[in-house]
Amino acid sequence: MEKEALQILPLFKGKKIAVIGDVILDKYVWGKVDRISPEAPVPVIDVSKDDYKIGAAGNVALNILDLGGKPYLFSVIGNDGYGRMLKDLFKKKKIGADGVIVDSSRKTTLKMRIIAHSQQVVRIDYEDRHPISQEVKNKIINKLRKIKPDVIIVEDYNKGLLTKDLIRDVCRFAKRRKILTVADPHPTRDLSFYAGVDSMTPNRSEAYKLLNAKPEMPVKEIGKKILSELKMNFTLITLGEDGIMVFNKNSIKLIPTRAREVYDVTGAGDTVISIYALALACGAKPETAAALANVGAGIVVSEIGAATVSLKQLKDEIITYEKTVQPK
């Protein structure tokens, strides 16, 4: 894989990727515990610092940016302080966010994680999950028409942005322009919700839930069924420590995982779809795109929080791994 992968990586630069999905403001509160509250039998966190990051579909955009691509983010936020913080972060990170619509009828999604001694103690969510209006949907489609991305990512966190109508209109636009669409699905949906997309990147659990399949059904059959029902030419299922399985119409290939200590799987799916989409935009075969995504996921799970991976990290990891598996 090394030769082909290393030829693909330089082509990431400047590739235009539209990311359509729920965006979240992630707040991390760091501290330590050395006493129990006298008010209730709960730990007291002495806070040392807190910071804010762009999460969910925004983290996909950050991954694409760090890999040399040019992300265009399409989402919805509230007309509130958290929404303004996100807009400031988009500007600071140089993410194209003209497609992020402000909707006064909803609040911006915030996920606050309390972390003590490198362990997450609790997560607190602030969110509205009602579906977007027809007006917001039309604004997103109209803004999408103003650019011609190389690939469109549909990133579903089930926070209200993605509706069947929006996905249908996005896929129609993409097919007219011959643009590839890749979806990261949410397990609460029915598989038909994503009708029209060209490929998907579910994890094992999501894939089974999308089909409402029994646990004893082999994962190979799950992938083939997804491929068949959505009439796709290729797709993948991530299998955690077992790697990634790639499905084509006439073949199935398992890409083994990279041995690495796992600290936090947060954001691993974001990294997978980012690298997968960029590689496909560069003309990579699905198997090569999935193999590159597998390398990137192995890097980010070794860090706490929703991390991103740089092009240099990806390149260095490929070269290092290939050296370790060469026969002596």
- Shape, principal axes of CA atoms: globular
**Largest beta sheet: what is the strand line-up?**
5-4-1-8-9-10
Approximate strand percentage: 25-35%
CATH class: Alpha Beta
CATH H-level name... which superfamily? Ribokinase
Order of helices and strands: HEEEHEHEEEHEHEEHHEEEHHH
If classified by CATH, what would the architecture be? 3-Layer(aba) Sandwich
- Give the overall pLDDT as a whole number: 91
What percentage of residues falls in helices of 4 or more residues?
25-40%
Structurally, how many domains make up the residues?
A: 1
CATH structural fold name: UDP-N-acetylmuramoyl-L-alanine:D-glutamate ligase
Low-confidence stretches: 324-328
The strand count comes to: 13
Report, as a whole number of angstroms, the end-to-end distance: 19 Å
Structural class category: alpha/beta
* Tally of DSSP helical segments: 10
Largest sheet: 6 strands, parallel
Radius of gyration: 20 Å
